[in-house]
Amino acid sequence: MPFLEFIAGSISGALGLAVGHPIDTVKVRLQAQSVYKGIFHCVTKTYANEGLHGFFKGMAFPVLTTGITNSVVFGSYSNALDYLSQSQRSVRSQGKPASAAQVFAAGCFSGLVQVVVCAPIDLVKVRLQGQTTADRYRGPIHCVTVILKEEGPRGLFRGGLALALRDVPCYGLYFLPYEVTRKALTEDGKQPGTLAILMAGGVAGVVTWAFATPMDVIKARLQMSGAGGRVYSGVLHCMRVSVREEGLRVFFKGLLLNSVRAFPVNAVTFLSYESLMKIFCSPAR
Fold first, then answer.
1. Where are the alpha helices (DSSP H) in the chain?
2. pTM (2 decimals)?
3. Distances (CA, A) of 118 to 112, 156, 180
4. Rounded Cα–Cα distance for residues 220 and 127 (Å)
5. pLDDT tens sequence across 236-253
C-alpha cells in the first residue's frame, strides 16, 4: 500500500535525524563559514560560545518536518520502483529484484520530488544551524517570516539549483548501493537480516555523501548568502570564488563528518523503514 510506505519513511526519518543532527550542525558551519580551522576547533568554539544547545540549533524544524521529507523520499522511490519494474515490493523481496537501472532511476525521481517539496525546509535548517547567536532568527517560524519579508517567496528556494544538482543523482546512488549490499549479504531465498540491512544502509549513506559533499558545500554557501554571509550570483559563481580563495579542497569540507554521520544515521533509517514495512505489510492470519 503506497500510503504505508510514506508513513514508514516518515518515522524512520525522525529516528535517523535524532542520531545525526549534532554532527550535521558542525558540518554546516565548516562548509558555510571559513572561521574554523577544522572539526575540533568548530566543536570547541561552538561548545564554548553556545553550550550543548548550539549543536541542536535548527533541530526542531527538521523534527517537525522530517516526516514530510523522508515520506516523500521513500514513498516516491518505492512507488516509482513499483511502476518501473512492474512489480510490487512483496514480489521483489521473493527473489525477483529490480534491475540496477530501475533502482537508479527510481532514486533519481525521489530526489527530484524531494527537492521540490523540501527545499524551503532545508534552507531554514541551514540558516538556523549557521547562526552563532539568536540575533537574526529567533526560531523556524521567525526565520521563514524574515526570509519572506526580505527576499520574497523565491528566497525560500535559495540554493535550490545546487540542492537539485546534489540530490537528483545522489538519491539514485543512495538506493543503488543499498540494494546491492543488502542482496550481497543475504543468502538466496532468505529475507535480509538486521545486520545486512544495517550494513547496507550505512554503506549507502557513506557512498552517497562521498559524491554529494562537493555540491553540499556550494548549497550551504548559497543558502547562507542571504543571511549575512557572502553573496553569490549563482552556483557557478560560488564555485569559482570558493576554488579561487580556498582551492579544490573546499569541495570536500565536511566530507569526514558527512561520512561519520552517514553510516549510523542511514543504518538506523533503513532498518527502521524495513522493520516498519514488515509490520505494516505482514499477511493477516
1. 2-32, 39-50, 60-85, 89-92, 100-130, 140-151, 160-184, 194-224, 235-246, 255-280
2. 0.73
3. 10, 10, 27
4. 9
5. 999 999 999 999 999 988
